[in-house]
Write a structure and sequence with these properties.
Layout lengths: L1 H26 L4 E6 L4 E7 L3 E8 L6 E7 L8 E7 L5 E8 L5 E3 L5 E8 L4 E8 L14 E9 L18 E8 L39 E6 L7 E3 L16 E7 L10 E4 L12 E9 L8 E3 L3 E2 L12
Antiparallel strand pairs: 1-2, 2-3, 3-9, 4-5, 4-10, 5-6, 6-7, 8-9, 10-11, 12-15, 12-18, 13-17, 14-16
């Protein structure tokens, strides 16, 4: 009897400890943030630890509408995994772990892995915060790993009788969006322990395309050969990031930076154009060694010693837009 009581106390202590750990990540600051829709119409903020991700969604919607946040392998809304906040016909609020089938119809998961934390609502805005396990080892759940994740967003009208059977593919009744994000970037350093950088000695160089008219084809590779400024002492690249015109973020799929190594005596010239065009210079073949890469949803910090480099930017996507 005494042993049984002890085991119950230990079990309760373990459960309480887990809940405290989860609550800590949910109630702490959420340093990562992205506007899914401009002008604050839909905002995602989050934080994470080894076991959980804490999610905060703010949406300008009717307080009775339902809001879903989820994941899938390729950004499809079928065969996807969602946490859905919804209000039933009696005004009761729910957070439900669901998955979509091959037709985009939602079904309630037998094991619920979306843990409600809080909700704040006005007549025009809903802010919902919850926790989800990163790895559940369940067939219908998406396992959250490091790297780029296809995140899904769905807003639907409410109140509803049940979330079971709702569709995430009915274009006439719902709003939906998809973003590729790195949900588990390196933790931001503490300002007190972060190495200081003398900003007066930092030089910034933008390698930009000049108002490119992207062809109306599925994929375009655009090259820019650029000479770096002449340097007379050792320098270090302390940061490398994308510089994409606002409004065209979904157009650029990835960017690569190459080192051009020409044979002695051969001179390279600055050039910009379609990498696959017949008019592309032969010298472009000397630019093959990758020294940096960026992909949609990714952020990199690189530290590289360089002296005399040529850079080349590749831009990919489909439509007639200016980049």
């Amino acid at each position: 009897m005494f042993l049984a009581q002890k085991m119950v106390q230990i079990y309760q202590f373990v459960i309480l400890t887990l809940l405290l750990v989860e609550a800590t990540i949910a109630k702490s600051g959420l340093p990562y943030r992205v506007e899914v829709e401009k002008q604050g119409r839909l905002i995602l903020s989050w934080n994470y630890n080894d076991d959980h991700i804490a999610v905060d969604l703010q949406a300008k919607i009717n307080p009775k509408s339902w809001i879903a946040f989820g994941f899938s392998d390729y950004g499809e809304f079928t065969h996807a995994d969602f946490c859905v906040f919804w209000t039933d016909l009696w005004g009761r609020e729910h957070l439900t772990d669901v998955f979509s089938d091959g037709k985009g119809v939602l079904h309630v998961d037998q094991t619920q892995n979306c843990q409600f934390v809080s909700v704040n609502q006005t007549t025009t805005r809903t802010q919902i915060r919850f926790i989800r396990k990163r790895r559940t080892c369940e067939e219908e759940d998406y396992q959250l790993e490091e790297g780029t994740t296809h995140t899904l967003y769905v807003l639907g009208p409410g109140p509803i009788a049940t979330i079971e059977g709702q569709s995430v593919t009915n274009e006439n009744e719902i709003y939906k969006n998809m973003l590729r994000l790195s949900l588990f970037p390196p933790k931001l350093p503490d300002e007190e322990t972060q190495p200081s950088v003398d900003e007066s000695k930092v030089k910034v160089m933008d390698v930009l395309s000049e108002k490119v008219q992207v062809p109306a084809k599925e994929t375009t590779y655009w090259c820019v050969i650029k000479k770096l400024p002449s340097l007379f002492q050792k320098n270090h690249i302390i940061r490398y990031e994308s510089n994409i015109q606002e409004g065209n973020e979904d157009l650029v799929h990835h960017i690569e930076v190459f080192h051009c190594e020409a044979p002695p005596g051969q001179q390279l010239f600055e050039w910009e154009g379609d990498c696959d065009a017949d008019t592309a210079p032969q010298e472009i073949e000397h630019c093959k060694r990758v020294i940096g890469a960026w992909a949609m949803g990714e952020f990199l910090l690189r530290q590289i010693c360089y002296h005399y480099l040529y850079l080349q930017r590749w831009i990919t996507h489909m439509a007639s837009e200016n980049v």
